[in-house]
Design a protein that fits this description.
7 strands, two-stranded antiparallel sheet, D-amino Acid Aminotransferase, Chain A, domain 2, 3-stranded mixed beta sheet
């Protein structure tokens, strides 16, 4: 999720997959103007965030604008999600992803 110019993701010990796409997005966060943080997230945090997105190998970055009958922020894809997607695509087009896990 994005909140107050921070990219916030749960830590690995919370059960998220320590995948290549996640690592790549965390790596390009500063290029998108975001400070990356790994902290525990609640549903309330997601509902009150500025932006939410999911990452995955095949999906890459998927914006989330609606969750459990509620819109996230204004219900549109956020500017940082767009910036992260652009930076991720640059990274994978140029070099592929070479992050050690």
């Amino acid at each position: 999720m994005v909140k107050d110019r921070s990219l916030i993701t749960p830590p690995i010990h919370a059960g998220v997959l320590n995948g290549i796409t996640r690592s790549a997005v965390l790596g390009v966060a500063s290029k998108a103007g975001l400070k990356a943080q790994e902290i525990s997230i609640t549903r309330f945090d997601l509902f009150t965030s500025d932006e939410v997105f999911l990452t995955g190998t095949a999906a890459e970055i998927i914006p989330v604008v609606w969750m459990d009958g509620r819109s996230i922020a204004d219900g549109r894809v956020g500017k940082f999600t767009c910036k992260l997607t652009a930076e991720f695509k640059k990274l994978t087009k140029k070099d592929g992803v070479r992050y050690a896990l």
